[in-house]
Design brief:
Elements lengths: L2 H27 L2 H8 L4 H34 L11 H7 L7 H14 L2 H28 L9 H60 L1
Helix pairs in contact: 1-3, 1-7, 3-6, 3-7, 4-5, 5-7, 6-7
Length: 216
């Protein structure tokens, strides 16, 4: 069995998550992460972090699923056929009786949906993180501009408070944007990797089916 193909996806996901965890540890050790969370009064950064954790969990589950499907496909190539219905998407595609040749395209689409359909949820979460970051930018600028109300009544003693409020609003805008962009990039890499491996599995299965038809 080709263990490289069957385990590469999950190992790549573990590597990416390990690097992400190391980066998180460094920001935590330096106090940067705590500072970002504590200075964000909107708590948008917390929502973005939670979305990243949920999306990464989904990506991890899908990496295990696709790795197992690759393992089943390698077993099929070696002659195995004792699979339950729904256990192997490749086996279901290869053994489905076709009443008409056009059904082959339909079954390939069904296999593709089962291989990568769930990834749309991950891409939605990735886009949501960017939108939350932009929302934080807008909220931060609103906080900064709202501190300028009543500027004509300010005296020297109020300038320090005004500057603190403006700095806080700008910090919210920058921090939420930064967290949203970094999180969306890291999560997008995970689901891009999943999509590529799903496409390779689909292509390998269809090619294997066509070769068997020609051989027979």
């Amino acid at each position: 069995m080709n263990t490289n193909k069957t385990h590469t996806l999950f190992l790549l996901w573990v590597l990416l998550i390990s690097l992400t965890a190391f980066g998180f540890y460094m920001t935590w050790h330096k106090g940067l992460f705590q500072w970002i969370i504590l200075t964000d009064n909107t708590r948008i950064c917390v929502v973005i972090v939670l979305a990243f954790v949920v999306g990464s969990g989904l990506a991890g589950w899908r990496s295990v699923y696709l790795s197992r499907q690759w393992q089943y496909f390698e077993q099929i190539r070696l002659g195995a056929s004792n699979f339950k219905l729904g256990q192997s998407i490749c086996h279901d595609y290869l053994t489905h009786p076709l009443a008409h040749p056009s059904e082959g395209q339909l079954m390939a689409e069904v296999m593709a949906e089962r291989a990568r359909g769930t990834h749309q949820v991950g891409w939605f979460v990735t886009g949501l993180m960017i939108k939350l970051g932009l929302l934080g930018t807008v909220v931060g600028f609103i906080m900064m501009l709202s501190s300028l109300e009543g500027l004509e009544q300010l005296d020297i003693s109020d300038i320090k408070t005004l500057m603190q409020q403006m700095t806080q609003g700008m910090g919210v805008a920058m921090n939420t944007t930064l967290v949203g962009l970094i999180g969306s990039i890291l999560l997008g890499l995970q689901f891009l990797m999943l999509d590529r491996h799903a496409d390779k599995l689909i292509a390998a299965t269809v090619d294997y089916a066509h070769r068997n038809v020609k051989a027979s």
